[in-house]
């Protein structure tokens, strides 16, 4: 007897070239037989947690040159299911590497089940005593994910030294909160910005940032940064681009470094660009460096052991923002660009 | 008997905050006694060649944050004489290191004579068989000078590999022409841009660039660069900033590098800024790096022997643009920003 379920999943109705809205998405259902043809080496996974990240919106555009530069940025086709990093449990396996009940992590779908084809990215997961959701966010092991992005971007791209002054934008985002916490552990002076009073309090009280401000209340970002960094900025971890980047360049010290990690301002509205002073860039010998975590997979072991240690000692606080059910996926992505998440945005698709 | 001469020198009447014009400058004269008080350790130098470089205009602004970042960018005060790198001949010396008739190089003045105080930057010069003017421009040994800027910026900041595709803006400028020639010697594909048909011909015919274009005839720089670099740009040596930088970012390859050397567009008009796509910067892992040659003085020995060899074998062509007399200094500086020089701009103040 073949067991059949209804698999609910999210798709887009059309390419999304600006900000996304509810009407761009569709929740579809299709029957799925929970067994495999003889000889099949597919794996059917029941999805438990899936990730929401800004890069997915870029993949929904009708065209972006970035789609050619990185496999993780390949275009998403309307009507098709959408892949996303996640953690799940094997329901049935034609692949001898996996058995029923195994907890796995890899490239799953924005849906309730994933049929992983041979060659698909899937690995058994050792939770190491941490909640499964941590492995979707801060401890996740593939490109585009927050933990390695924060670690590689901060330590490798910025090459920080103890005592340096670090500014983090979108500091409660999935990457920013970890960058700020890594910087504090190293002994840097860290200021973050976020979009509400509550978030500012969280940065200072829960995450131990030296200071924080609400950028929505600051009409003149250059003088704001001057106030928070009277001795200048050595490192700017840039998650937003635009006017904040420009203001940071004005306030940077000699040999300042900017790791460009995200451009929330550019994803949804190309008009919000702002050009930093290249004269400052020259005279202050500033480095502006784009990067992708996928180029630093060789550091994954270091990153994982370091971060797990800090989580166990409490030097780093996990920061997750979890919604329930596949139907919450569209609003979770939309709200990401409104800065409505606090920490890594994750969808809990099902109970273990 | 004390010999007295009339020393003619250039000064500014006022700070210059935009483009400079003739009326900003003044040719002054004052008597100078060509002998020293007993016990004085000054050196009086008859200036032979002095340098004209864009950084001098920045120093004339009433304020620029760059003036705080680099000694070579310190503000110039109206009415005072203006220092500039140059080569001269010692007339009288109170310093045992120098004797009458010595050829010296160092920080002189935009004038006919320089009284070098103790501690002033002055060294005996071995011309090594080259014309003295070469030692003001491409072979000069202090910060802000073209040869070391080209060498350090290209080899150290861009880390080029044979076969890479290199784009140079202001390619007939003092730095750009050398960068292009270094890149050709290394075996790169090199395209330059300049501001006239004659300059384009010079780049291709005299300097051996693979191709070149006149940016004034190109209304859409993004598609221009796409045409000249169908396989993308690996290295952009940026002497101008603004829209050209933006177009270069759009056409860069993965792991592309931009050495930001000059911002002609920004020196005289802050409105010409243009913001490159930070999404491209991220997905293509582009590095945008400002630099000053003064940080690479440790490379001066390498640079000098390499460049002298190439000059002797003819693999590198010298490119100088020499005007005569201190009275030609103001127009030389003004025209630098109109792109009217071909190669290093030098003033021949006097015959040897």
TrEMBL record, chains A, B:
Pfam families noted in UniProt? ADH_N_2 (PF16884), ADH_zinc_N (PF00107)
Q: Which domain of life is it from?
A: Eukaryota
Q: Where is the Enoyl reductase (ER) domain?
A: 20-347
SUPFAM superfamilies of this UniProt entry?
Answer: GroES-like, NAD(P)-binding Rossmann-fold domains
UniProt-listed InterPro entries: ADH-like_C, ADH_N_2, ER, GroES-like_sf, MDR_fam, NAD(P)-bd_dom_sf
User: What SMART domains does the annotation carry?
Assistant: PKS_ER
- Gene3D superfamilies cross-referenced by the UniProt entry: Medium-chain alcohol dehydrogenases, catalytic domain, NAD(P)-binding Rossmann-like Domain
Q: Which UniProt keywords apply?
A: Oxidoreductase
The parts of the chain that form a coiled coil are none
**Name of the protein this chain belongs to:** Enoyl reductase (ER) domain-containing protein
Please name the source species: Hibiscus sabdariffa
């Amino acid at each position: 007897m073949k067991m059949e379920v209804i698999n609910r999943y999210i798709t887009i109705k059309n390419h999304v070239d600006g900000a996304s809205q509810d009407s761009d998405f569709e929740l579809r259902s299709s029957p799925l037989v929970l067994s495999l043809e003889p000889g099949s080496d597919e794996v059917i996974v029941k999805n438990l947690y899936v990730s929401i990240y800004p890069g997915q919106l870029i993949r929904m555009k009708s065209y972006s040159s970035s789609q050619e530069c990185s496999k993780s940025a390949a275009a998403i086709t309307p009507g098709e299911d959408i892949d996303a990093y996640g953690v799940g449990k094997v329901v049935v396996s034609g692949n001898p590497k996996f058995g029923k009940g195994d907890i796995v992590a890899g490239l799953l779908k924005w849906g309730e089940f994933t049929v992983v084809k041979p060659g698909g990215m899937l690995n058994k997961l050792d939770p190491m005593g941490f909640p499964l959701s941590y492995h979707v966010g801060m401890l996740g092991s593939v490109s585009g994910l927050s933990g390695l992005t924060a670690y590689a971007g901060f330590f490798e791209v910025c090459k920080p030294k103890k005592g340096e002054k670090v500014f983090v934008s979108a500091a409660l985002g999935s990457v920013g909160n970890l960058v700020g916490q890594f910087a504090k552990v190293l002994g840097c002076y860290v200021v973050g910005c976020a979009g509400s009073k509550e978030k500012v309090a969280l940065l200072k009280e829960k995450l131990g940032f030296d200071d924080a401000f609400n950028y929505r209340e600051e009409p003149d970002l250059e003088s704001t940064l001057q106030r928070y960094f009277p001795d200048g900025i050595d490192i700017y971890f840039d998650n937003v681009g635009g006017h904040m980047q420009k203001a940071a360049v004005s306030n940077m010290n000699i040999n300042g470094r900017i790791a460009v990690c995200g451009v929330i301002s550019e994803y949804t509205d190309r008009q919000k660009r702002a050009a930093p002073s290249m004269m400052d860039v020259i005279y202050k010998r500033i480095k502006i460096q784009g990067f992708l975590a996928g180029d630093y997979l060789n550091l994954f072991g270091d990153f994982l052991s370091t971060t797990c240690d800090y989580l166990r000692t409490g030097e780093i606080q996990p920061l997750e923002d979890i919604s329930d059910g596949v139907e919450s996926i569209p609003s979770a992505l939309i709200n990401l660009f409104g800065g409505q998440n606090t920490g890594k945005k994750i969808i809990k698709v099902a109970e273990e």
